[in-house]
Amino acid sequence: MNMRNKNNGYYKELFQNAGFRPCKAPKNFPSGGDCFEVLPEIGSGYYWYYEVPEQYNIKIHDFSFKEDTVLKMDVPECLSITWYESISGEELNPYRNLKCKVIKSFLGGNEPFHALIHRNIPIRSIGIEYQPDFFHQILKDSFGSAYENPETAFKCIDETADFPEMKKLLWDIWKYKGSASATVLFYDAKAREALSLIFEHHRKLNIKAKTVLSSTDVELLNSLGLYINDHYADKISIESLARIACMGTTKLKSAFKAYYGMTIAEYLQKVRIDHAEHLLAYTNLPVSQVAKAVGYVSSGHFAKLFSEAKGLSPLNYRKAFQK
After folding, report:
1. What is the pLDDT of residues 48-61, one digit of tens each?
2. Domain-embedded: residue 224
3. In the chain, where do the E strands start and end?
4. Is 34 in the same domain as 95?
5. Which of 57, 91, 127, 296 could make an S-S bridge to 51, C-beta 3.0–4.6 Å?
6. Are residues 305 and 229 part of one domain?
7. Are 89 and 230 in a shared domain?
8. How far separated are the first and last CA of the chain, in Å rounded?
9. How many CB atoms lie within 10 A of CB 148?
10. Are 57 and 132 part of one and the same domain?
11. For residues 36 and 180, what is the distance between their CA atoms, to the nearest angstrom?
12. Residue 209 pLDDT level (bands cut at 50, 70, 90)
């Protein structure tokens, strides 16, 4: 089947076949749209969906599974942008951790989405998915001769926490409580505004000076990443990393950000939090000991960082995962 032709109503049918049943939307969901409830034997929560055929759909996920669940599904040809408030698991092809507190872009119509979702941790997200003819036409109308292939603009986002305008727009949709007569106009305006934000975000990134990395720099940065992965619990200084990478501290900071898409401090924090997630899920170590095991002296500071990264406090994450 042509993946472009699968868009209309595709997700509603998919979720109904996967153990969701139609229901009335709870009060904390926006006006309009269709809502589905997870069957109690599978998990708990809701999936909300609003669609304009041949143009776009808006999806809200707010549910969890009782057991670790592997998802593998074809995704229609589309471009999507999503804010993840909470999620825990791994993408399996290619392998990488699923992150929360980020804006994530996705290009559908290629490889199936394949992921492991951890049990009892809520998937809480809101996103807009665009069909090809619609986003091409909107961008051409909005930007004329400045219009470029939108796939490039979506790819440049990948996963970022630095897109507050998009986060606000998506939360505005979730909180919308307008009348039925105004619903169509509101969602249409927000869908078009989000496309413009994506394109402007891409243009601003292109304006910034790009750091050119040599093959030697890339090799050294790869080795540095492996070093941090092995020594994340140690006290690591920028000076020691600069010596290992054979770079000055200024060059190291810019080169690392260019290669990994985050600062050294952000990378180290990510590695530590990912290891802490495993310790909380599979051991009974007190939170204070988990904090020390991954390199944090203060358990309070660790708990704050973990909550910001995973959407749950360390104790609540453990309770949910070991339930």
Report:
1. 999 999 899 999 99
2. yes
3. 20-23, 34-38, 43-52, 56-65, 69-73, 78-86, 89-92, 95-97, 102-108, 113-117, 123-130, 159-160
4. yes
5. 57
6. no
7. no
8. 41
9. 13
10. yes
11. 19
12. very low
